[in-house]
Amino acid sequence: MQLYLDTANVEEIRQAADWGVICGVTTNPSLAAKENEDFGKILPTICDLVDGPISAEVISMDYEGMIKEARELAKVHQNVIIKIPVMPEGLRAVKTLAAEGIRVNVTLVFSVNQALLAARAGAAYVSPFLGRLDDIGQTGVALVKDIVDMIDLHELDTEVIAASIRHPEHVPAVALAGAHIATVPFKVLQQMFKHPLTDGGIDKFLEDWKKAQGGK
Ligand code: E4P
To answer: Per-residue pLDDT tens for 147-202?
Structure first.
């Protein structure tokens, strides 16, 4: 399973890219709105920092608007993936864009039916939002597993991005559920490094080394 970073913050992306652990980035309008800079300036910078799929979402809710925005975004860099919500106008746009070779990540997916529709329209990726399902008392990881199983069973050419990840335990859960990709917030990526036995182990190694040096 690949890891993407779920942020529009350039400094977070720079750090995660330096650590060598991320293969792509996902953004959305809420994440872009948190930044002080114009997203039009941020997107090319992200593409320079990470040599992999970079999802950027359209704001239009009508087919013509989505297509116009998507073509503009796709011109920014060959790695830009267009994010479109799962809705009839959106999937119509997915079909057109896929025929033009523009890859789409269908977002706000909360059911196997929505994932199936997106895959049939030609989506390169589908993004089930597990955290938001957990928020309403359903099991996000189970949805990820069902979508992966459906895609595998019917040999569909769509990858599953487990999105709306809220804590480090979500990551192994979606990896074992078969997600192709997990897109994680920077905080979760930092938490993934952490284990008290690692921290304690490092302290002990350094302490023992220092003691041994003193005795020489
Ligand atoms: C990524 O593709 C999604 O937009 C993001 O993971 C949503 O996360 P949230 O539910 O925490 O806003």
So the answer is: 999 999 999 999 999 999 999 999 999 999 999 999 999 999 999 999 999 999 99
Q: Is 34 a catalytic residue?
A: no
Ligand 1 in contact with 163 (CB < 6 A)? yes
Q: Which residues pair with 128 in a beta bridge?
A: 109
What region, left, alpha or beta, does residue 52 occupy, with left being phi > 0 and alpha being psi -120 to 50 degrees? Answer: beta
Q: Which atom of ligand 1 is nearest to the CA of 185?
A: 6
CA distance 22 to 47: 13
* CA angle (67, 69, 75) in 5-degree steps: 100
- Provide the 3-class DSSP secondary structure of residue 13: helix
pLDDT at 1 over 90: yes
Cα within 13 Å of Cα(149), Cβ side: 10
- Cα separation, 179 vs 177, in Å, equals 6
pLDDT surpassing 90 at residue 214: no
pLDDT cut 70: percent of the chain above it? 100
pTM for the model: 0.96
The residue whose C-alpha atom lies closest to atom 12 belonging to ligand 1 is 164
